Amino acid sequence: MTNSEQLSRLVGVLYDAALNATLWPEALTGIAAFVGGSGAGLHVRDVARRTGKAHYEVGTDPGYSKLYFDKYIKLDPLGTAYFFLSVGEVSSNSQLVPHSEFVETRFYKEWVKPQGWIDNILVILEKSKAIQAEHVVFRSERDGLADEPARQRMRLVVPHMRRAVLIGDVIDLKNAETSTFADTLDGLSAGMFLVDDSGRIMHANASGHAMLAASDFLRAEGGQLVASDAPTDQVLREIFAAAGTGDAAVGIKGIAMSLRSREREYYVAHVLPLTSGARRRAGANYAAVAALFVHKAALETPPRPAVIARTFGLTPSELRVLLGIVDVGGIAETAVALGVSEATVKTHLRHLFAKTGTSRQAELVKLVAEYSVL
C-alpha cells in the first residue's frame, strides 16, 4: 500500500471514529504505522494542575499508562513545553527538551526507559484554558529519535484527526447505540446541517433551524446555507464541493471556522464529509455530502505560565525551573522535584535571572505572583 493509499484509508477511519468511538483504537494503530512509531495515544491534559487522562491508547502498557497519570505526569519535562505549542503544531520531545537533558531526568529513568521508549511525535488538537486534547505517537528505541519525515507524515494526519476529535466532542455519542444516527443529530444542542455539494440544506436539526430563523451569522437563501461573513461563506462553498469528491479532499479547511453574531458572540463550525465509510449511510438518507456542526464558543485567555514564557522569551526548560522554584523552593529541592541535576537547575536559573532582570530567587517568586493577579 502506498503512502497516499495508507493516508486515504486512515482519513476514512478517523472520520468514522467521529461517529463511532469504538474505531479509535483502529485509527491510532493506523496512525502509528503511518507516522512511524510503536504506539499512539489520545489524551486530555490539565496543564496547570498537571493531571490528565488517556482516552485511547494502543501499543502501550496499561500499567505504565496509569502510573503516568497517577505520578509521572508531574515529573514529565514536557509539562511546561506544552505552553509553547500552538494548536495543530507538530513537534517532538527531542525538539522541545534537549535529549542530553531529558535522559538525566527521573521521568526518563523511571518511566520512559523501562518501557523501551526514546522519543515521541506530538500535537495539541484543541485547547480550552489550561485543558487540552493531545495526540501522541510513541517512538521506541528501535524506532530512534523522531526525524522530520516522520513529523511531516504526522502533519498530513493532523487536520483530519482534529476534525474527527472536535466533531466527536460535539456529537458525544455515549448513548448512540439506543437511537438512530438521525435521532442523535436531531437531539444535539449544537446546530447541525446536512448539505449537498452546492450547500443546499437537505436537513437541519432544531438548533440549526433556530439559527436560520435568527438570520444572523448563518441564513438560508434559496434553500442554500449561507454565512454572513463573505470569506467564511467562500470557504464553506469550497469545502462542500470538495466533500462530494471524498474524505481527503476536504483537507485542512473547515476544521474549526469562527463565526460571530451581531451581539459579538462567537461560534465554531466543523465540517464532516459523509461520502464514504460508515458515514455514507447517514448522508445517503438525505442525499447529503457533508454535515456542518455549529456551537457556541467561549473566548479563552492563555494560562499564566504561557503569558510569562512569552513575555520573557523563556524556553520550556527555563519555564519548568521557574515554576519549580515557585512551587518547591531552593535549588536542591527543585532538582529533586524535577528529576534533574542541581547543575542543570543552576544553569537555567542564571538564564532566568538574565531574561527577567532579577538576581534572586525571591524576586522570581514575586514576579510570578504579580502575573497571577493580572
Structure, briefly:
The protein is of the alpha+beta class and 374 residues long.
**CATH class assignment of the largest domain:** Alpha Beta
Helix content class: 40-55%
pLDDT < 50 stretches: 173-179
Mean pLDDT: 85
- What is the chains' assembly state? single chain
Number of helices: 17
CATH superfamily assignment of the largest domain? Transcription factor LuxR-like, autoinducer-binding domain
The general outline is globular
Q: In CATH terms, what is the architecture of the largest domain?
A: 2-Layer Sandwich
Radius of gyration: 23 Å
Task: Describe the model.
By secondary structure, the chain is an alpha+beta fold. It folds into 3 domains: 3-171, Beta-Lactamase, CATH 3.30.450.80; 179-297, Beta-Lactamase (2-Layer Sandwich), CATH 3.30.450; 304-371, Winged helix-like DNA-binding domain superfamily/Winged helix DNA-binding domain (Arc Repressor Mutant, subunit A), CATH 1.10.10. It has 17 helices and 12 strands. It has helices at residues 3-19, 24-35, 62-70, 78-81, 93-96, 99-102, 106-112, 148-171, 181-186, 206-214, 230-243, 279-284, 304-312, 316-327, 331-338, 342-356, 361-371; strands at 39-46, 51-58, 90-92, 117-128, 131-140, 191-195, 201-204, 218-221, 224-227, 257-260, 266-273, 290-297. The strands form 3 sheets. The protein has a 5-stranded antiparallel sheet with strand order 2-1-5-4-3, sandwiched between helices. Strands 7-6-12-11-10 form a 5-stranded antiparallel sheet. The protein has a two-stranded antiparallel sheet with strand order 8-9.
